[in-house]
Amino acid sequence: MTSSLPTRSQAVAEALTAAGVPGEIRVLPDSARTAAEAAAALGCEVGAIANSLVFVCDGAPLLVMTSGAHRVDTAHLAGQLGTGPIERATAAQVREATGQAIGGVAPTGHPARLRTVVDTALEGYEVLWAAAGHPHTVVPMTYRELLAVTGGTPATVAAE
Question: In 3-state terms, what secondary structure has residue 5?
Fold first, then answer.
């Protein structure tokens, strides 16, 4: 039942349902603001954590869903996308673009659809875990579901 979820997570649950993604949002007793915290709480590999990172690219927000196993190489990603420089968004820019706070940004449930890139490294995991709108909520999904719910473009986000 979504009514017991934090408000931001309720919006995520509604967006997941609308997209046909069956994952049930799980509320964790402790914060899962980092990939390492989330992996420890869930008992999974850190690489299976789908981090939601917001950047600014060509004057607009860019959501990058990346594996917790590595960092986004913004110069590499800009080259992959053929864009101008990609810079990390401020906390205020993240909140404005997603309606969610850093540490709890979900792949969906935002005020408007964001241009999204999905790290191809995530494809290697049967189950991914993403934040669900709040630092204490997560949701499982497959790589295909992540692509579908975000409308994202698969890309390598770190140089090999």
Answer: coil
Which residues, 6+ apart, have CB-to-CB distance to 68 below 8 Å? Answer: 34, 35, 36, 38, 39, 46, 47, 48, 49, 50, 51
Note the pLDDT tens digit of each residue in 92-111.
Answer: 999 999 999 998 999 999 99
User: What's this model's pTM, rounded to 2 decimal places?
Assistant: 0.93
Judged by DSSP in three states, 112 sits in coil
Nearest Cα residue to 109 out of 27, 2, 18: 18
Which stretches of the chain are DSSP H helices? 7-18, 35-42, 74-81, 91-98, 143-150
CA distance 66 to 47: 9
For the chain, report the end-to-end CA distance as a whole number of angstroms. 42
Residue 99 CA to residue 79 CA, distance in Å, equals 28
